[in-house]
Amino acid sequence: MAYNQTYYNKTIKLMKNALEKFNSLDNFDYLRIENNDKSILSKNTFCSRFFNNDSKKMFEAVKNYNHKIKRIEKIIDKIDVYDIEVPNTHNFALASGVFVHNSSKMARDKEFQAILPLKGKILNVEKANPVKALSSEEVVNLITAVGTGVRENFQQDKLRYNKIILMCDADVDGQHITTLLLTFFFRYMPQLIENGNVFIAVSPLFRIRKGKDIYVYSEEEKDKKVRELGGKADVQRFKGLGEMNPQQLWDTTMDPKTRILKKVTIEDAVMADSTFSMLMGDEVGPRREFIIKNAHIAEIDI
């Protein structure tokens, strides 16, 4: 991994210099030979190793490498913006007044996919009173993006997106964020769950590389696949979605043809209400009893 990172960083840096100098990569290999650095790969090797021989994707990566701020312009009027595309640059999302640039913004199909980045864990609305909950900046952004309003002001026909997909890391922190978001939807927009509009994206935990990339979603699936491959394979655990490059994120989590989605349903509203109250509410006793009762089946994520 360290060698590959060195090869990638040194090669793409020199490629960027070549592109800026010659406005193409045609002379890159001559420049590489003149540079006389053995850790800089040839154009064909670089394209094969890191971009599956897709020269278009390689060129796009080089073009956008080490992008710089050209200018900052202030605007007078405030505009509700959740999805910004600046021509000839990366795509960005505006969240809580901060530009956020990540793999999901680059991976999505802008024709039908919009991304609303959230800064970490939203407010636990189970413990907060409605006034505090509805004044939280992250909650306000979420309500505005969905478009339906909340509680007695809820209007299904105002829904801006047919599918609301919660896309969080596959680790414990990601599951906690997912739970907080589900708590919000259950308390303030339960109709979205009842109408089948809320989904959870299932992202892989591991990438197994042996000739080609194989993505698996659990420890058991990983161990089984490694055994099938004869025990000799490169295994990478994804700590979060941000560790995936845009193509990996699209292939595994965002492409409608290959992604796995869990539809969130409420089969028994009373049971769901009880469970949410116990796990996310102020009463410590019931939650402690639940943990003691179920500790023997808990999985530890280190």
Structure description:
The chain is built from 13 helices and 9 strands. Mean pLDDT is 79; it is low at 89-101. The strands form 3 sheets. Strands 1-2-3 form a 3-stranded antiparallel beta sheet, with no helix packed on it. It has a 3-stranded mixed beta sheet with strand order 4-5-9. Strands 7-6-8 form a 3-stranded antiparallel beta sheet, covered by helices on one side. It has helices at residues 2-22, 28-35, 43-51, 55-63, 103-107, 130-133, 137-146, 172-188, 190-194, 219-228, 246-254, 269-280, 284-294, and strands spanning 84-85, 91-95, 98-100, 164-166, 198-202, 206-210, 212-216, 234-237, 260-263. The chain folds into 2 domains: 2-63; 101-203 and 238-302, Rossmann fold. Strand 6 (206-210) and strand 7 (212-216) form a beta hairpin. 20% of the residues are buried. It has 302 residues and is of the alpha+beta class. The longest helix has 21 residues, at 2-22.
Write the layout of secondary structure elements.
Layout (H helix, E strand, L loop, with lengths): L1 H21 L5 H8 L7 H9 L3 H9 L20 E2 L5 E5 L2 E3 L2 H5 L22 H4 L3 H10 L17 E3 L5 H17 L1 H5 L3 E5 L3 E5 L1 E5 L2 H10 L5 E4 L8 H9 L5 E4 L5 H12 L3 H11 L8
Parallel strand pairs: 4-5
Antiparallel strand pairs: 1-2, 2-3, 5-9, 6-7, 6-8
